[in-house]
Design goal:
2 copies of one chain form a homodimer. Chain A is α/β, with parallel strands linked by helices. Chain A contains 16 helices and 15 strands. The first copy, chain A, has an 8-stranded parallel sheet, with helices on both faces. In chain A, strands 3-2-1-4-13-14-15 form a 7-stranded mixed sheet. Chain A is globular and about 65 Å long. Chain A starts with 10 loop residues before the first strand and ends with a helix. The relative contact order of chain A is 0.16. The mean pLDDT of chain A is 97.
Chain lengths: 436, 436
Amino acid sequence: MTDIFEKKHSLLISNVMADERCIDIFIDETGTIAGMGEKERTTYKGEAEFIIDGDGAIALPGLVNTHTHAAMTLLRGYADDMILQDWLSQKIWPLEAHLTGDDIYQGTRLACLEMIRSGTTAFNDMYFCMADAARAVDESGIRAVLSYGFIDLFNAEKRENECKATENLAAHIRALNNPRIKAAVGPHAIYTVSPEGLRWCAEFAGEQKIGIHIHLAETEGEVNDCISRHGKRPSGLLDDCALLTPRTIAAHCCWLDDAECTLLGNRGVHVSHNPVSNMKLATHRAMPYPYLSAAGVNVCLGTDGCASNNNLDLFEEVKIAALLQKFYWNNPTILPSHDALLLATENGGKALGFGTGKLLVGTPADIVLVNTHIACNTPLHNADSNLVYACNGGAVETTICDGKVLMLEHEIPGEAAIRECAARAACELVNRARNS
Amino acid sequence: MTDIFEKKHSLLISNVMADERCIDIFIDETGTIAGMGEKERTTYKGEAEFIIDGDGAIALPGLVNTHTHAAMTLLRGYADDMILQDWLSQKIWPLEAHLTGDDIYQGTRLACLEMIRSGTTAFNDMYFCMADAARAVDESGIRAVLSYGFIDLFNAEKRENECKATENLAAHIRALNNPRIKAAVGPHAIYTVSPEGLRWCAEFAGEQKIGIHIHLAETEGEVNDCISRHGKRPSGLLDDCALLTPRTIAAHCCWLDDAECTLLGNRGVHVSHNPVSNMKLATHRAMPYPYLSAAGVNVCLGTDGCASNNNLDLFEEVKIAALLQKFYWNNPTILPSHDALLLATENGGKALGFGTGKLLVGTPADIVLVNTHIACNTPLHNADSNLVYACNGGAVETTICDGKVLMLEHEIPGEAAIRECAARAACELVNRARNS
């Protein structure tokens, strides 16, 4: 008997709920949604190699995580509850100095596993040894935009290296020729990259027609330092360097002022909100969703890395985004459940440019099924509300990306080995750091 | 073969982690932890009716939810994202007017199911038709302190009814003679209960030697109204009415000032933090944990009801408490993972007075086992960190209360029927309200 996990098959998913209708979904052998409606079961029954009984599950577009550092799963729980600078300089950076390419592979494999399990089918990554990350993404079956974290520390020699690494990654990803994997340019932030480096990144991304992934206005200190150094706020500096484009995803953005929101809107920048990380590291201001939204900015959602979250569950992130925006901006009507869910689906899809982030006939089948026969979906007065406020990623039972089944009724082939290899790699990493 | 779920049995739980040691736990047939250590397996093997292979799980004391309205599970997702007063007056109260005793029973059964599934073994409830709630708790196997929500709306006649209902509940619970169920007095809040009503509640609770459960300083409006009406802040008013005692649990407490924190500390009041509800309803100020902590107040944790959360997962609540305190008070070192976990275990245990909230020989076995062979516990650099920041309630695989196994490897007997009955009750409730 053929294994449903082995490759793409034509699939009939019967009896699922989408937009409050009970429908069937037919996916053809190319991984495209070929039919979606109330009678697809009768139309396509003979054509489907496999039938998945949805059993009343909610069908959603696969969630999109627009800011993370996937391999940092290996650092989950290694250090928490510290002042940001101490945490980085005493704990995170010393450990990262010992990371090998194989660690990046193992950590990214674990991250992909965790994302598949919690319903995420595409992510935006920034880290290093990205060829190893690409190998993990390729094997996992999900989608990713991969960027090398460009950090020149205002040093010309180091800048040369970073340009080279960025060029190499773009060439490597192009050579992979895997439609699920794209390269982006990853200038880390204004406080780690020189204006020359930022300009080079903008130019290279433009030439290559690839995305830009950057941290922006995460802390008040970053804004104040930028003003004293450059006489302008961070978004102004990025704009001078031509880095604000419709291909740019700016993460965090907690400390934007109104004019910056307008500027980002005018430039078509996508903003990735990371509420858990911002709260954990005490940025003390929430990304100004009401202002960004009014400025027409496409706001999407990211978990950040596992060292500052410490998981990759976008359902949890959606809930906390909806809660934080209400609490900080003092209005319980901000970011209602329907809109909150869009941050992680349509808006994320728009930002990464992998399809639409919607369930539509003729588009690649990135679909997750959420179990409705569990306490968090009982009762089911309002599916959007339950998905945002009551469920977590554990409610996802089946995950399909590009038409390939990656998890079926909570089963992911090879899961134990991925966890065990990552656990071993993390252990050995800490030992190497300790003994150095 | 005897059913492990049927009644209390002597149990040997082998190979679990507690306080970074790998141990076995022996529970005798009275439900008491009789042995706990590295060699209990050899000592007690012959005596155990059942052996549960912990398989490296983390053993924790059962979590304690110190503020909820359990039966409101039926309202999960019924109305969200509204201004507090509109939400209550247009949505929640009109629906609650149609709740029957059977609804309360079904809703509380669903709540208990959800709590067992996510590792909670005791809760502090305030609602109405509490005899029906007691029946659900009795059958579920977990512990609860039940209070009737005393609301006299400053009306003498209504006050008579509320006193009667409170006396009836106390008598009913005494007659049940179930050590897992206690009664408390539940004056709802200073804005719904007259000073005469508050004083009566204090007196009755003192006579009966039972607890007091009240909402306090949830919103800025409550504080401002209290000052204009009574010339003092809410805690001062409660103190005048003798309601601040070591048997009192005050929920929310977002808008306490420093002097109130000191007063609550001096009176031995327990404060139940409800971060999810506070964020969702936009209280705009976080409970002042640093000040309460400095004043020696026992701070514990509650989910609030499912209409304002919308689940009963205390693992999620612990994480959001740790995040919110850091973010609001602008310091990432506040409420580190070890302390955050204590809010939901030891501190909750202290507040409800059901045992110690610790795993100790000679105490009732309220134990939950958290799976370590899952992504959120990989790697396992620090168990407390993973439990707080990476896991949710879905990581709990086994729940034991008073020595009785309530969930074993995610299986809870009778679960489907409980969900189906609750879903039906919720549906009929909404229909009754619509047609009235």
